[in-house]
Amino acid sequence: MLGVPDLMHHKYVVRDGQDVWTGSTNWTDDSWSREENVILTVHSSGVAERFTADFEQIWQTGVVAETGFVDPDPVRVGEARVRAWFSPGHGEALATRIAHRIAKAKMRIRLASPVLTSGPILGALCEAVSDGKVDVAGVVDGTQMKGVYHQWELNGNSEWKMPAITRVFHGAPFTAKSSMPYGQGDVHDFMHAKVVVADDYVFTGSYNLSHSGEENAENVVEIQDEGIARQLAAFVDDVRARYEAAPIP
Fold this sequence. Notes:
Layout: E1 13-15, E2 19-23, H1 29-33, E3 39-43, H2 45-61, E4 75-77, E5 80-87, H3 91-104, E6 108-112, H4 119-131, E7 135-141, H5 142-154, H6 161-171, E8 174-177, E9 195-198, E10 201-205, E11 218-224, H7 226-240, E12 244-245
Parallel strand pairs: 6-7, 7-8
Antiparallel strand pairs: 1-2, 2-3, 4-5, 5-11, 6-9, 8-12, 9-10, 10-11
Helix pairs in contact: 3-4, 4-6
């Protein structure tokens, strides 16, 4: 597939128009044995239909920029309310949606992502941490975040993000995995899970919380369900407990 303007970053399977397997896990040995990841399985013809529509766009066009144009209409799956989001077609709307749910949270926000660079999401987190009314915590990949800081120093357009990420990491208990730098050896051991929990809303899939991710071919499943939100919040807390405080620019 032609990566224009960015990556084909999906990791999903649709089976018999009824089942979807998706998440953050690349199909590599290191992903299964060395990285933190989230895998989601959904038994729903409605959700499968949306993933199939995205796949057909990928298959027919072969160009990242021409995919992800599948409307994120809600589907009822058991007791849960589910939306399937795809980028780049709905990349900006997805980032805004996540930021909106973070801003609306009253009790709890949990986040896991290799990097945190999306403007809307970073801004909403910064405000939530500054307000101090919501329990906010998370985990990132420290090695990749240090690389982000270096890029920001070189790019004046992103300079405003430095104090924002400093406020988030200084004001809330965020930790970071010190992974092997990409390209130095054959080991890929990143903190690779991508999860946002905002009260009883969950967002999980292949999307790093980054601006470039909005232009990749990505998918995110949004779930409104108290039990699943509680389960994934506990997962984030378990992962972040393994590591030291996140690096601050």
